[in-house]
Design a protein that fits this description.
13% strand, single chain, alpha/beta, two-stranded antiparallel sheet, 11-stranded mixed sheet
Length: 478
Protein backbone atom coordinates (compact mmCIF):
# COMPACT_ATOMS: atom_id res chain seq x y z
CA UNK A 1 0.00 0.00 0.00
CA UNK A 2 1.26 3.55 -0.68
CA UNK A 3 1.33 4.51 2.98
CA UNK A 4 3.88 1.76 3.67
CA UNK A 5 6.42 3.61 1.51
CA UNK A 6 6.00 6.69 3.69
CA UNK A 7 6.50 4.69 6.88
CA UNK A 8 9.90 3.57 5.68
CA UNK A 9 12.72 5.75 6.94
CA UNK A 10 14.13 8.47 4.72
CA UNK A 11 17.34 6.45 4.46
CA UNK A 12 15.37 3.41 3.27
CA UNK A 13 13.42 5.49 0.77
CA UNK A 14 16.65 6.83 -0.75
CA UNK A 15 18.05 3.29 -0.91
CA UNK A 16 14.95 2.16 -2.82
CA UNK A 17 15.64 4.86 -5.40
CA UNK A 18 19.31 3.91 -5.63
CA UNK A 19 18.49 0.23 -6.11
CA UNK A 20 15.56 0.75 -8.46
CA UNK A 21 13.15 -0.76 -5.92
CA UNK A 22 10.96 2.35 -6.18
CA UNK A 23 11.10 5.49 -8.25
CA UNK A 24 11.22 9.02 -6.92
CA UNK A 25 7.84 9.58 -8.57
CA UNK A 26 6.36 6.66 -6.63
CA UNK A 27 7.64 8.15 -3.40
CA UNK A 28 6.31 11.62 -4.15
CA UNK A 29 2.97 10.24 -5.31
CA UNK A 30 2.68 8.23 -2.08
CA UNK A 31 3.47 11.35 -0.06
CA UNK A 32 0.92 13.48 -1.92
CA UNK A 33 -1.69 10.74 -1.57
CA UNK A 34 -1.13 10.67 2.20
CA UNK A 35 -1.54 14.44 2.35
CA UNK A 36 -4.75 14.16 0.31
CA UNK A 37 -6.08 11.53 2.68
CA UNK A 38 -5.08 13.02 6.02
CA UNK A 39 -4.71 16.76 5.78
CA UNK A 40 -8.39 17.61 6.23
CA UNK A 41 -8.16 15.97 9.65
CA UNK A 42 -4.71 17.26 10.62
CA UNK A 43 -4.28 20.62 8.88
CA UNK A 44 -0.55 19.91 8.90
CA UNK A 45 0.30 21.16 5.38
CA UNK A 46 -0.65 24.73 4.50
CA UNK A 47 1.01 25.11 1.10
CA UNK A 48 1.44 22.39 -1.52
CA UNK A 49 3.62 22.20 -4.61
CA UNK A 50 2.44 18.98 -6.27
CA UNK A 51 3.33 19.74 -9.88
CA UNK A 52 6.81 20.96 -9.07
CA UNK A 53 7.46 18.01 -6.75
CA UNK A 54 6.40 15.50 -9.42
CA UNK A 55 8.53 17.25 -12.04
CA UNK A 56 11.55 17.13 -9.74
CA UNK A 57 10.85 13.45 -9.01
CA UNK A 58 10.83 12.65 -12.73
CA UNK A 59 14.34 14.14 -12.97
CA UNK A 60 15.72 11.67 -10.39
CA UNK A 61 17.02 8.52 -12.05
CA UNK A 62 17.45 5.08 -10.54
CA UNK A 63 20.91 4.74 -9.09
CA UNK A 64 21.11 8.35 -7.90
CA UNK A 65 23.69 8.26 -5.09
CA UNK A 66 22.58 11.39 -3.29
CA UNK A 67 21.71 10.67 0.32
CA UNK A 68 18.07 11.82 0.04
CA UNK A 69 17.56 11.23 -3.67
CA UNK A 70 13.82 11.32 -4.39
CA UNK A 71 12.83 11.53 -0.71
CA UNK A 72 9.73 13.71 -0.05
CA UNK A 73 10.32 16.55 2.40
CA UNK A 74 8.00 18.85 4.34
CA UNK A 75 9.38 22.29 5.25
CA UNK A 76 8.16 24.34 8.19
CA UNK A 77 6.82 27.70 7.03
CA UNK A 78 9.25 29.66 9.21
CA UNK A 79 12.90 30.56 8.75
CA UNK A 80 13.47 28.14 5.89
CA UNK A 81 12.97 30.30 2.80
CA UNK A 82 11.79 28.25 -0.19
CA UNK A 83 12.39 29.42 -3.75
CA UNK A 84 9.19 29.46 -5.78
CA UNK A 85 6.97 28.29 -2.90
CA UNK A 86 4.72 30.51 -0.77
CA UNK A 87 6.36 31.43 2.53
CA UNK A 88 4.17 33.02 5.22
CA UNK A 89 5.76 32.67 8.69
CA UNK A 90 2.19 31.83 9.74
CA UNK A 91 1.29 35.52 9.32
CA UNK A 92 -1.65 37.10 7.55
CA UNK A 93 0.56 40.16 7.08
CA UNK A 94 2.96 38.20 4.81
CA UNK A 95 0.10 37.51 2.38
CA UNK A 96 1.38 35.15 -0.39
CA UNK A 97 5.07 36.01 -0.62
CA UNK A 98 6.99 33.73 -2.97
CA UNK A 99 10.79 33.96 -2.47
CA UNK A 100 13.27 33.78 -5.35
CA UNK A 101 15.85 31.68 -3.48
CA UNK A 102 16.28 28.96 -0.87
CA UNK A 103 17.70 29.38 2.61
CA UNK A 104 20.91 27.45 3.31
CA UNK A 105 19.01 24.66 5.06
CA UNK A 106 16.59 24.12 2.18
CA UNK A 107 19.37 24.44 -0.40
CA UNK A 108 21.42 21.75 1.32
CA UNK A 109 18.49 19.34 1.67
CA UNK A 110 17.47 19.82 -1.97
CA UNK A 111 21.10 19.37 -3.10
CA UNK A 112 21.02 16.01 -1.31
CA UNK A 113 18.05 15.02 -3.49
CA UNK A 114 15.13 15.80 -1.17
CA UNK A 115 11.95 16.96 -2.91
CA UNK A 116 9.81 19.58 -1.16
CA UNK A 117 6.15 18.53 -1.26
CA UNK A 118 4.74 21.27 0.96
CA UNK A 119 5.10 23.82 3.76
CA UNK A 120 3.75 23.09 7.23
CA UNK A 121 1.51 24.75 9.80
CA UNK A 122 2.84 26.70 12.78
CA UNK A 123 1.87 29.48 15.21
CA UNK A 124 2.36 33.02 13.95
CA UNK A 125 6.12 33.75 13.90
CA UNK A 126 6.70 30.52 15.84
CA UNK A 127 5.91 32.25 19.12
CA UNK A 128 3.87 29.58 20.93
CA UNK A 129 4.48 25.85 21.61
CA UNK A 130 1.14 25.04 19.94
CA UNK A 131 0.40 25.44 16.21
CA UNK A 132 -2.84 27.43 16.21
CA UNK A 133 -2.44 30.47 13.95
CA UNK A 134 -5.41 32.61 12.96
CA UNK A 135 -4.26 32.47 9.35
CA UNK A 136 -4.37 28.69 8.98
CA UNK A 137 -6.22 27.37 12.01
CA UNK A 138 -4.92 24.69 14.38
CA UNK A 139 -2.76 21.78 13.31
CA UNK A 140 -3.95 18.59 14.99
CA UNK A 141 -2.23 15.59 16.52
CA UNK A 142 -2.65 12.31 14.57
CA UNK A 143 -2.73 10.39 17.87
CA UNK A 144 -5.76 12.43 19.01
CA UNK A 145 -7.09 15.18 16.77
CA UNK A 146 -8.58 17.03 19.74
CA UNK A 147 -5.00 17.65 20.90
CA UNK A 148 -2.13 19.74 19.65
CA UNK A 149 0.84 18.25 17.81
CA UNK A 150 2.88 20.86 19.66
CA UNK A 151 4.72 23.81 18.25
CA UNK A 152 6.09 25.63 16.81
CA UNK A 153 7.03 22.84 14.36
CA UNK A 154 3.63 21.22 14.89
CA UNK A 155 2.63 20.75 11.25
CA UNK A 156 5.96 19.12 10.46
CA UNK A 157 5.61 16.71 13.39
CA UNK A 158 2.01 15.82 12.55
CA UNK A 159 3.02 15.16 8.94
CA UNK A 160 5.84 12.78 9.84
CA UNK A 161 3.87 10.99 12.56
CA UNK A 162 0.96 10.44 10.17
CA UNK A 163 3.15 9.15 7.34
CA UNK A 164 2.97 12.11 4.95
CA UNK A 165 6.77 12.09 4.80
CA UNK A 166 9.58 10.37 6.68
CA UNK A 167 11.48 13.59 7.37
CA UNK A 168 10.47 17.20 7.87
CA UNK A 169 12.29 20.43 8.53
CA UNK A 170 11.68 22.19 11.83
CA UNK A 171 13.34 24.77 14.03
CA UNK A 172 13.68 25.25 17.75
CA UNK A 173 13.95 28.49 19.73
CA UNK A 174 12.49 27.26 23.03
CA UNK A 175 11.65 23.62 22.34
CA UNK A 176 9.93 23.89 18.96
CA UNK A 177 11.43 20.65 17.61
CA UNK A 178 11.47 18.70 20.88
CA UNK A 179 7.94 19.69 21.98
CA UNK A 180 6.20 18.38 18.82
CA UNK A 181 8.49 15.35 18.77
CA UNK A 182 7.25 14.48 22.26
CA UNK A 183 3.62 15.15 21.35
CA UNK A 184 3.74 13.05 18.18
CA UNK A 185 6.09 10.18 19.11
CA UNK A 186 9.10 11.26 17.03
CA UNK A 187 12.84 11.82 17.31
CA UNK A 188 13.56 15.53 17.61
CA UNK A 189 17.07 16.96 18.01
CA UNK A 190 17.84 20.60 18.70
CA UNK A 191 21.41 21.03 17.45
CA UNK A 192 24.06 23.07 19.22
CA UNK A 193 24.18 26.82 18.73
CA UNK A 194 26.06 27.56 15.54
CA UNK A 195 25.76 24.03 14.15
CA UNK A 196 23.24 25.05 11.45
CA UNK A 197 23.34 28.33 9.55
CA UNK A 198 20.44 30.77 9.19
CA UNK A 199 22.06 32.16 6.04
CA UNK A 200 21.89 33.85 3.70
CA UNK A 201 19.08 36.11 4.93
CA UNK A 202 19.25 35.84 8.72
CA UNK A 203 22.13 36.02 11.18
CA UNK A 204 20.20 34.66 14.14
CA UNK A 205 16.73 34.35 15.61
CA UNK A 206 15.78 34.95 19.25
CA UNK A 207 19.20 36.12 20.46
CA UNK A 208 20.88 33.03 19.07
CA UNK A 209 18.55 30.68 20.95
CA UNK A 210 16.94 29.29 17.78
CA UNK A 211 18.29 26.75 15.29
CA UNK A 212 17.08 24.68 12.37
CA UNK A 213 16.79 20.89 12.57
CA UNK A 214 14.67 17.96 11.43
CA UNK A 215 11.89 15.71 12.74
CA UNK A 216 12.04 12.01 11.92
CA UNK A 217 11.01 8.59 13.22
CA UNK A 218 14.54 7.16 13.55
CA UNK A 219 17.82 8.19 15.11
CA UNK A 220 19.73 7.45 11.89
CA UNK A 221 17.47 9.76 9.87
CA UNK A 222 17.96 12.49 12.45
CA UNK A 223 21.73 12.06 12.25
CA UNK A 224 21.63 12.04 8.45
CA UNK A 225 19.50 15.18 8.40
CA UNK A 226 21.98 16.92 10.69
CA UNK A 227 24.90 15.90 8.47
CA UNK A 228 23.16 17.49 5.50
CA UNK A 229 22.16 20.81 7.05
CA UNK A 230 25.11 21.42 9.39
CA UNK A 231 27.96 23.72 8.46
CA UNK A 232 29.18 27.27 8.42
CA UNK A 233 27.97 29.81 5.88
CA UNK A 234 29.96 33.02 5.29
CA UNK A 235 29.10 35.67 7.86
CA UNK A 236 27.47 33.40 10.45
CA UNK A 237 27.83 34.97 13.93
CA UNK A 238 28.23 31.58 15.63
CA UNK A 239 29.70 28.27 14.53
CA UNK A 240 30.15 24.92 16.25
CA UNK A 241 33.25 22.74 15.92
CA UNK A 242 33.11 20.03 13.28
CA UNK A 243 32.22 16.53 14.51
CA UNK A 244 34.91 13.85 14.60
CA UNK A 245 33.11 12.04 11.77
CA UNK A 246 29.72 12.27 10.03
CA UNK A 247 26.89 12.18 12.54
CA UNK A 248 25.46 9.02 10.94
CA UNK A 249 28.60 7.21 12.10
CA UNK A 250 27.70 8.12 15.66
CA UNK A 251 24.39 6.28 15.21
CA UNK A 252 26.38 3.06 14.82
CA UNK A 253 28.89 3.74 17.58
CA UNK A 254 28.78 2.31 21.11
CA UNK A 255 28.41 5.27 23.47
CA UNK A 256 30.52 3.55 26.14
CA UNK A 257 29.71 3.84 29.82
CA UNK A 258 28.26 7.26 30.51
CA UNK A 259 27.64 9.26 33.65
CA UNK A 260 23.97 10.11 33.43
CA UNK A 261 22.03 12.38 35.75
CA UNK A 262 18.27 12.68 35.67
CA UNK A 263 15.72 15.06 37.12
CA UNK A 264 11.94 14.84 37.24
CA UNK A 265 11.15 18.17 38.91
CA UNK A 266 10.65 21.17 36.62
CA UNK A 267 13.16 24.06 36.68
CA UNK A 268 10.40 26.61 37.32
CA UNK A 269 8.56 24.62 39.97
CA UNK A 270 5.41 23.72 38.01
CA UNK A 271 3.93 20.26 38.66
CA UNK A 272 4.89 17.43 36.32
CA UNK A 273 2.34 14.83 35.18
CA UNK A 274 2.92 11.42 36.82
CA UNK A 275 3.07 9.71 33.40
CA UNK A 276 5.88 12.03 32.31
CA UNK A 277 7.70 11.36 35.56
CA UNK A 278 7.20 7.61 35.17
CA UNK A 279 8.55 7.61 31.60
CA UNK A 280 11.67 9.42 32.77
CA UNK A 281 12.22 7.07 35.69
CA UNK A 282 11.74 4.01 33.45
CA UNK A 283 14.30 5.47 31.08
CA UNK A 284 16.73 5.94 33.95
CA UNK A 285 16.24 2.28 34.90
CA UNK A 286 16.80 1.22 31.28
CA UNK A 287 19.99 3.25 31.10
CA UNK A 288 21.25 1.65 34.31
CA UNK A 289 20.48 -1.80 32.89
CA UNK A 290 22.65 -0.92 29.88
CA UNK A 291 25.60 -0.34 32.19
CA UNK A 292 25.53 3.45 32.52
CA UNK A 293 26.15 5.18 35.83
CA UNK A 294 22.81 6.80 36.65
CA UNK A 295 21.88 9.08 39.53
CA UNK A 296 18.94 11.31 40.32
CA UNK A 297 19.78 14.93 41.03
CA UNK A 298 17.92 18.14 41.79
CA UNK A 299 18.26 21.43 39.97
CA UNK A 300 17.17 24.31 42.14
CA UNK A 301 14.24 26.23 40.68
CA UNK A 302 14.83 29.91 39.99
CA UNK A 303 11.87 32.28 39.73
CA UNK A 304 13.87 34.66 37.54
CA UNK A 305 14.12 32.28 34.63
CA UNK A 306 10.65 32.65 33.06
CA UNK A 307 10.36 36.47 33.15
CA UNK A 308 13.88 36.93 31.78
CA UNK A 309 13.36 34.40 29.00
CA UNK A 310 10.04 36.03 28.06
CA UNK A 311 11.71 39.46 28.06
CA UNK A 312 14.32 38.31 25.56
CA UNK A 313 11.64 36.56 23.48
CA UNK A 314 9.57 39.75 23.32
CA UNK A 315 12.52 42.06 22.69
CA UNK A 316 13.09 41.18 19.07
CA UNK A 317 9.47 41.01 17.91
CA UNK A 318 9.33 44.37 16.15
CA UNK A 319 12.71 43.74 14.55
CA UNK A 320 11.54 40.32 13.35
CA UNK A 321 8.41 41.83 11.80
CA UNK A 322 10.64 44.33 10.03
CA UNK A 323 12.96 41.54 8.86
CA UNK A 324 10.18 39.50 7.30
CA UNK A 325 8.87 42.67 5.66
CA UNK A 326 12.32 43.48 4.28
CA UNK A 327 12.58 40.01 2.76
CA UNK A 328 9.09 40.29 1.29
CA UNK A 329 9.98 43.68 -0.16
CA UNK A 330 7.43 45.78 1.70
CA UNK A 331 6.51 47.08 5.13
CA UNK A 332 4.13 44.68 6.84
CA UNK A 333 0.77 45.89 8.12
CA UNK A 334 1.02 45.38 11.89
CA UNK A 335 -2.76 45.70 12.14
CA UNK A 336 -2.86 42.19 10.64
CA UNK A 337 -0.82 40.69 13.48
CA UNK A 338 -2.57 38.36 15.91
CA UNK A 339 -3.38 39.88 19.33
CA UNK A 340 -0.44 38.15 21.04
CA UNK A 341 2.04 39.08 18.32
CA UNK A 342 0.77 42.65 18.28
CA UNK A 343 1.09 42.99 22.04
CA UNK A 344 4.64 41.62 21.88
CA UNK A 345 5.38 44.01 19.00
CA UNK A 346 4.17 46.99 21.02
CA UNK A 347 6.03 45.87 24.14
CA UNK A 348 9.24 45.46 22.18
CA UNK A 349 8.98 48.99 20.78
CA UNK A 350 8.75 50.32 24.34
CA UNK A 351 11.54 48.14 25.77
CA UNK A 352 14.92 49.73 26.34
CA UNK A 353 18.15 48.18 25.14
CA UNK A 354 19.18 48.00 28.79
CA UNK A 355 16.09 45.96 29.68
CA UNK A 356 16.94 43.48 26.93
CA UNK A 357 20.64 43.22 27.81
CA UNK A 358 19.93 42.82 31.52
CA UNK A 359 17.58 39.90 30.81
CA UNK A 360 20.09 38.34 28.41
CA UNK A 361 22.92 38.72 30.92
CA UNK A 362 20.79 37.08 33.63
CA UNK A 363 20.13 34.11 31.33
CA UNK A 364 23.80 33.81 30.39
CA UNK A 365 24.83 33.88 34.06
CA UNK A 366 22.24 31.19 34.80
CA UNK A 367 23.64 29.18 31.89
CA UNK A 368 27.08 29.11 33.47
CA UNK A 369 25.60 27.54 36.59
CA UNK A 370 23.73 24.91 34.55
CA UNK A 371 26.60 23.97 32.24
CA UNK A 372 28.81 23.45 35.31
CA UNK A 373 26.78 20.25 35.88
CA UNK A 374 28.67 18.67 32.96
CA UNK A 375 31.92 18.73 34.91
CA UNK A 376 30.76 15.46 36.46
CA UNK A 377 28.04 14.38 34.02
CA UNK A 378 27.92 13.31 30.38
CA UNK A 379 24.16 13.49 29.76
CA UNK A 380 21.21 14.95 31.64
CA UNK A 381 17.80 13.25 31.27
CA UNK A 382 14.49 15.03 31.95
CA UNK A 383 10.87 14.78 30.86
CA UNK A 384 10.46 16.67 27.59
CA UNK A 385 7.12 18.13 28.69
CA UNK A 386 5.35 18.63 32.00
CA UNK A 387 2.26 16.98 30.47
CA UNK A 388 1.55 14.94 27.33
CA UNK A 389 -0.05 16.66 24.34
CA UNK A 390 -2.62 19.17 25.56
CA UNK A 391 -6.00 19.93 24.01
CA UNK A 392 -6.39 22.47 21.22
CA UNK A 393 -6.90 25.89 22.80
CA UNK A 394 -5.54 24.90 26.22
CA UNK A 395 -3.08 27.82 26.30
CA UNK A 396 -5.66 30.47 25.40
CA UNK A 397 -5.94 33.37 27.81
CA UNK A 398 -9.02 33.54 29.99
CA UNK A 399 -11.67 36.21 29.47
CA UNK A 400 -10.32 39.57 30.55
CA UNK A 401 -6.66 38.52 30.42
CA UNK A 402 -4.09 40.13 28.16
CA UNK A 403 -2.95 38.10 25.10
CA UNK A 404 0.56 37.87 26.59
CA UNK A 405 -0.91 35.49 29.17
CA UNK A 406 -0.83 32.78 26.47
CA UNK A 407 2.96 32.99 26.48
CA UNK A 408 3.07 32.85 30.28
CA UNK A 409 0.65 29.91 30.31
CA UNK A 410 3.03 27.94 28.12
CA UNK A 411 5.66 27.95 30.89
CA UNK A 412 3.44 25.54 32.82
CA UNK A 413 3.58 23.01 30.00
CA UNK A 414 7.08 23.36 28.54
CA UNK A 415 9.43 24.14 31.44
CA UNK A 416 12.13 21.66 30.45
CA UNK A 417 13.02 22.72 26.90
CA UNK A 418 13.85 26.47 26.69
CA UNK A 419 16.74 26.29 29.15
CA UNK A 420 18.94 24.48 26.62
CA UNK A 421 18.26 27.01 23.89
CA UNK A 422 19.79 29.56 26.25
CA UNK A 423 22.86 27.44 27.07
CA UNK A 424 23.22 26.45 23.40
CA UNK A 425 23.68 22.77 24.21
CA UNK A 426 22.26 20.01 22.00
CA UNK A 427 19.06 18.46 23.33
CA UNK A 428 17.07 15.53 22.01
CA UNK A 429 13.56 14.18 22.64
CA UNK A 430 12.95 10.45 22.20
CA UNK A 431 9.52 8.73 22.22
CA UNK A 432 10.27 6.40 25.12
CA UNK A 433 6.86 6.43 26.81
CA UNK A 434 3.13 6.23 26.22
CA UNK A 435 0.21 7.19 28.44
CA UNK A 436 -2.44 4.68 29.43
CA UNK A 437 -4.62 6.23 26.72
CA UNK A 438 -1.92 5.75 24.08
CA UNK A 439 -0.51 9.28 23.73
CA UNK A 440 3.25 9.48 23.16
CA UNK A 441 5.46 10.69 26.00
CA UNK A 442 8.88 12.15 25.24
CA UNK A 443 12.02 11.95 27.34
CA UNK A 444 14.67 14.63 26.84
CA UNK A 445 18.44 14.09 26.71
CA UNK A 446 20.80 17.05 27.04
CA UNK A 447 24.40 16.68 25.96
CA UNK A 448 27.56 18.65 26.66
CA UNK A 449 28.30 21.70 24.50
CA UNK A 450 28.71 20.58 20.86
CA UNK A 451 27.96 17.03 22.01
CA UNK A 452 25.55 15.84 19.31
CA UNK A 453 27.67 12.76 18.56
CA UNK A 454 27.33 11.55 22.14
CA UNK A 455 23.57 12.10 22.16
CA UNK A 456 23.12 10.31 18.82
CA UNK A 457 25.13 7.28 19.96
CA UNK A 458 23.15 7.01 23.19
CA UNK A 459 19.85 7.51 21.37
CA UNK A 460 20.71 4.75 18.89
CA UNK A 461 21.50 2.40 21.78
CA UNK A 462 18.12 3.15 23.36
CA UNK A 463 16.32 2.77 20.02
CA UNK A 464 17.86 -0.68 19.55
CA UNK A 465 16.88 -1.69 23.09
CA UNK A 466 13.38 -0.16 23.25
CA UNK A 467 12.34 0.41 19.59
CA UNK A 468 9.46 2.73 18.75
CA UNK A 469 9.39 2.97 14.94
CA UNK A 470 6.49 0.52 14.57
CA UNK A 471 4.13 2.64 16.66
CA UNK A 472 1.66 4.37 14.37
CA UNK A 473 -1.41 6.46 15.10
CA UNK A 474 -4.64 4.74 14.10
CA UNK A 475 -5.60 7.71 11.93
CA UNK A 476 -2.62 7.07 9.66
CA UNK A 477 -3.62 3.46 9.10
CA UNK A 478 -7.34 4.00 8.49
Amino acid sequence: MPHELMFKSASEQAQLVRSGGASARELVEASLAAIDRLNDDLNAVVTRCDERALAEADAVAAGDERLLAGVPLLVKDLGAITEGIRTTIGMRAMEDWIPDHDSATVRRLRAAGAIVVGKTNLPEMGILPVSESLRFGPARNPWDTARTPGGSSGGSAAGVAAGMTAIAHGNDGGGSIRIPAACCGLVGLKPSRGRVSWGPDLAELAAGFATDGVLTRTVRDTALGLDLIAGYEPGDPYWAPDPSAPFVYAAGRDPGTLRIAFVVDSPNGVPVDPECVAATRRTAELLASLGHEVQEIEIEADEGYVPNFVTVWIAGTANEVATWGRLAGRELDVEQLEPLSRQMYDLSLNMSATDYLKALDWLHDYSRELVALWAGTDVLVTPTLARPAIEIGALNEADGEQPIQRLMNSAGWVPFTPVWNVTGQPALSLPLGQTDSGLPVGVQFVGPPAGEELLISLAAQLEATAPWADRRPALAMA
